[in-house]
Amino acid sequence: MALLDIPHPAVTINIQSPITSYEHSQMLETTRTYRARIVNHQQVSDDFDQCGFAASKLWNVARYYTQGRWDEDGEIPDDGELKSELKEHERYSDLHSQSSQRVLEELAESFTSWYKARQHGDENANPPGYRKHGDEHPRSTVTWKQKGIKHDSKHSQLRLSKGFNLKTHRSDFILCEYETRPDATVENIQQVRAVWNGDRWELHLVCKVEIPVEDAPGDNTAGIDLGITNYLAIAYDDGDAELYPGNSLKQDKHYFTRDEYDTEGENGPSRRGLRARQKLSRRRDHFLHALAKHVVEQCIDHEVGRVAIGELSRIREEENGDSRSWGKRGNKKLHGWEFDRFSCLLEYKAEEHGILVDRVSERDTSKTCSCCGRKRDSNRVERGLYVCESCGATMNADVNGAVNIRRKITQNPPTEDMSNGRLARPVAYLFNQTSGLFHPREQVGCES
């Protein structure tokens, strides 16, 4: 089996998964990524171009080596092997050593993601491709770690080290001035990423920060069921329930992957297509951030101190460990479902307010009646509707799952006298593209 040389654009992730530790009871140590504009862009753009082109060339060298290993013995080399084999290569010395290492790590991660997707039945998944040559050579994202960074916070300047081969052209480093949002305090920089946004370079500054942690809003609990049609359903122990449809995400994906955008040539996506993908990624990021923030605010209003969310890391596997197939369309949807990313966002936003987020198994939560506890596959009569044949309860199927997920942490058994009125008619919140906020369906209807 040969790898396909189909370009697969790298995706820049703007938010790090939080790394947390407690130095004392009221402070949380975590990371934040700030997007910054390069003030002296005209003076440094050529230097960033050189580094971006060098990263693309190193990617292609590593891609060629990986292809050879696959053709020879069917193995995909990890980042350790790539670093060991290519550290003496001329292209490796074009960048600072840690920057070159990050390029190889990204390639290894991309191949691992592709291989896992194929194992889980996604026949449309393509391996990472070569980055094209010529006048339109893509400017790859370049990452500097701490050894390659000197930061002057007083004057908002960064000195980013070049590789040995590029030092002879101008200077040993790139000295750039940056500007970020007024409320951002840029210090304790862990990484700097230079990202080409289609028109110019911008910086993503990954900083270690300490933030105060509030006391928990209360002792109540909530359960969250993640889905595709409804991105999530949440149930509180006071009987309230809410739905958050993913309509805006679907509309964006449909619009920005139309044929006129999603065109591929020998050298990858067109410039218009690449910009459309970048815009789609930014809009998806904003949706996930806004949703996580809104859910935390709702939990505060309901005095929630602990949230249970479905753990979906093994949703692509059967109980015996074999790959599970959801059908051609289902596998494609599942592959693009960023449940882990949302869970990470929710965790770090909730932690700031003293709310603990637990990931729990979703096993049997969609089949079990949250009112009487009896389990039947036939109870879920159609998408969105759950009718229990035993106790007669009728409710929204996603909310029923959310109640069962919440019970995973409360350990309270179902009670047949539980009122299912609000479970059958939960409040639906829709995302308003204009305001960038979530509003009840009735308000969104009035605004339109």
> How many separate domains make up the residues?
2
Uncertain segments: 1-25, 444-448
Mean pLDDT: 80
Overall, the morphology is globular
Radius of gyration, in angstroms, nearest whole number: 24 Å
CATH-wise, what's the superfamily of the largest domain?
YqgF/RNase H-like domain
Structure, explained:
Helix content is 35%, strand content 24%. The protein is of the alpha+beta class and 448 residues long. The strands form four sheets. Strands 1, 2, 3, 4, 5, 6, 7 and 8 form an eight-stranded antiparallel β-sheet that branches. A seven-stranded mixed β-sheet has the order 15-14-9-10-11-18-19. The chain has a two-stranded antiparallel sheet with strand order 12-13. Helix 2 (79-86) crosses helix 3. It starts with 20 loop residues before the first strand and ends with a helix. 33% of the residues are buried. The model is unreliable at 1-25 and 444-448 (pLDDT under 50).
Core attributes:
alpha+beta; 11 helices; 2 domains; 19 strands; disordered C terminus; Nucleotidyltransferase, domain 5; seven-stranded mixed β-sheet; eight-stranded antiparallel β-sheet
Give the helices and strands, then pairings.
Blueprint: E1 21-24, E2 27-38, H1 41-73, H2 79-86, H3 97-119, E3 142-145, E4 149-152, E5 157-161, H4 164-167, E6 173-179, E7 189-196, E8 201-212, E9 220-226, E10 230-236, E11 241-245, H5 247-256, E12 264-265, E13 268-269, H6 271-301, E14 304-311, H7 327-335, H8 339-351, E15 356-361, E16 385-387, E17 394-396, H9 397-410, H10 421-424, E18 427-432, E19 437-440, H11 441-447
Parallel strand pairs: 9-14, 11-18, 14-15
Antiparallel strand pairs: 1-2, 2-6, 2-8, 3-7, 4-5, 5-6, 7-8, 9-10, 10-11, 12-13, 16-17, 18-19
Helix pairs in contact: 1-3, 2-3, 5-6, 6-8
